[in-house]
Amino acid sequence: MRLQKFLSGAGVASRRASERLITVGAVAVNGELAHIGQSVNPAKDKVTVNGKVIMPPAELVYVMLHKPVGYVTTRAHFPGEKSVYDLLPMEWRTALWPIGRLDKDSCGLLLFTNDGELTQKLTHPRYQNEKEYLVRFTGTLTSEARAKLQRGVNLEDDGKTAPCKIAVINDQEVKIILREGKKRQIRRMLAVVGCRVTFLQRVRDGIVSLGNLPVGKWVKIDSF
User: Fold this and answer.
1) 130-205 has which fold?
2) Domain limits of the chain?
3) Residue range 107-133, pLDDT digits in tens
């Protein structure tokens, strides 16, 4: 298999990040510096990252967490900050990574895994994976503004957003389906049309729905 696929499957990093590790010379195969596109046989080849031997995972793990507001999506700990990793069992805190992120002020469905293939399919733009959000806001979302958002709007330093779907629940609440993930995208999109997001919850990621999972709790998913 491709080296970057092996590394992501072993939980080292995503495929893209694994490619960067290879590029900077952090990866070796059988004692020789690795190169992009190289293939390895996990049963025979010795793969190291910064001198540490990498073994393939014994089990692929999939976990859904209902992220609360006020938690950051990072392993790094900063004074006064709470991390989503604090909500997971100790054995998963270094073995799993999040598929995408939710900002500190948002809540809802957050997936964790050690499956690099799945991470690629759910995050790479070419796969057009849908993510659905429940959004509450202040301001007035006119039909013209909604149509503008659905066509795509320009975000400063980030270009134009891709077309999206918006379903109106009431005057201050909508559901939005995106197929991309720019930083704080929904908050910035609504701001363009004069609205301010007061509540943002991811309720679906691809085929996985949040359902009635309590806030702050996690559940293991058998497979994808």
Assistant:
1) Alpha-Beta Plaits (3.30.70)
2) 3-53, 62-124+210-221, 130-205
3) 999 999 988 888 888 988 888 999 999
Within 8 A by CB and 6+ apart from 52, the residues are none
Alpha-carbon span 21 to 10, nearest angstrom: 14
The confidence score (pLDDT) of residue 105 equals 97
Q: Which residue has the tokens 């959004």?
A: 135
Active site residues: 103
Q: Which of 103, 98, 74 is nearest to 185 (CA)?
A: 103
Match 């390895």 to its residue by tokens: 40
Rounded Cα distance between 15 and 19, Å, is 6
The whole model's pTM is what?
A: 0.77
CATH assignment of 62-124+210-221?
Answer: 3.30.70.580
Please give the pLDDT value at position 76: 79
Question: According to the CATH classification, is domain 3-53 in 3.10.290.10?
Answer: yes
Please name the residue that has the structure tokens 């692929």: 60
Residue 189 corresponds to which amino acid? M
